[in-house]
Write a structure and sequence with these properties.
The chain is mainly alpha-helical. The protein has 2 domains: 1-172, no CATH class; 176-324, no CATH class. 73% of the residues lie in helices and 3% in strands.
């Protein structure tokens, strides 16, 4: 695999950050609160991208050991404080909730230092992070501007916490947290996408979950939406469910197949609350999707490859179908 360099990662981060700032400017945002929010989110994004660059995690782990995870947690916490102070929303209860989210997982990881990957602490941390993203008080923690960046802010922060916990403190191997490309990856990505479509589209229409409804008037937003889905949905979910959950399940059970199927079922069940609960049609289709995402991750050992399949599925769904 040819992995992206540190300088290329910095260029990608600058490009995405500037695109976000220009988009916000066009929406009329400006002033101190906006500057603090943009700074905080940009730095959280920087951390998320930084560890996908070649050799960054390895050098930090080698030089500082598990302490590097704690230092990253402190840094992420400071980014959040910058947001609170800059937006005038500082409150001790917000600080306390965020400190709990960041430092309790790190404490659990530190307590499992002598345990092999796949300890009960590892799975508890994964479950807690997912629950916080899904059901946590994100709009309360990120009130400016009107809660409109609450979801992506929470996602970025939780990815950074997971990096500090698993990549640095626990030093879990085989996550595949990298931006790069390898031989035959295009075949795996395209093949998984097309095969899943051949199953999911007829099944979704047959079960009255989706209907073919192309949104031709919205194709001007295709590029921006595709990037947003990849960065804020597909990449974080593939990190959590494939790089961490599937990886750790396979290690603890000593079976790649068990990790593959079990993580896919959990991925499906994670979508059962979307829409009217219990949304079994969504859960079943998401489980099938998870099998293909997991296959791509196993063949490439890269969450980028599985995230590309994931993002392609979501974007196709958005532009060509609507949920019934």
């Amino acid at each position: 695999m040819k992995q992206i360099s540190l300088w290329a990662t910095l260029s990608l981060w600058a490009l995405l950050s500037l695109a976000g700032v220009f988009f916000a400017f066009n929406k009329g945002y400006a002033g101190r609160a906006f500057a603090a929010t943009a700074t905080s989110l940009s730095m959280l994004l920087f951390v998320m991208l930084l560890f996908a660059a070649r050799g960054v995690a390895e050098r930090l782990s080698r030089s500082l050991g598990p302490t590097s995870g704690l230092l990253l947690g402190v840094l992420v916490f400071i980014f959040y404080i910058i947001y609170l102070v800059g937006t005038g929303t500082f409150a001790l209860i917000r600080v306390g909730i965020m400190a709990t989210l960041i430092f309790v997982p790190l404490a659990l990881a530190m307590s499992a230092q002598r345990s092999a990957a796949g300890s009960w602490q590892d799975f508890l941390i994964i479950a807690a992070v997912w629950i916080f993203v899904k059901f946590g008080p994100s709009t309360y923690l990120w009130p400016y501007p009107g809660g409109r960046v609450a979801y992506i802010s929470t996602v970025l922060l939780c990815v950074d916490v997971a990096l500090a916990t698993f990549l640095l403190a626990r030093q879990v191997k085989g996550i595949g947290y990298s931006i790069g490309w390898g031989k035959n990856w295009a075949l795996y990505v395209l093949g998984s996408y097309l095969l899943f479509g051949c199953i999911a589209i007829p099944l979704g229409i047959k079960t009255h979950f989706i209907a073919f409804d192309p949104q031709w008037n919205h194709w001007s937003s295709f590029l921006g939406l595709s990037v947003a889905v990849l960065v804020f949905t597909a990449w974080p979910e593939e990190f959590l469910f494939r790089g961490l959950l599937q990886n750790l399940l396979a290690r603890s059970s000593k079976s790649d197949l068990a990790g593959w199927w079990t993580s896919s079922v959990f991925f499906g069940l994670a979508h059962i609350t979307n829409g009217a609960f219990p949304n079994w049609r969504y859960a079943i289709l998401a489980t099938i999707a998870g099998l293909f995402y997991a296959y791509t991750w196993r063949k490439t050992n890269s969450i980028l490859a599985s995230a590309l399949v994931h993002a392609a599925v979501d974007v196709t769904w958005h532009f060509l179908f609507h949920t019934l």
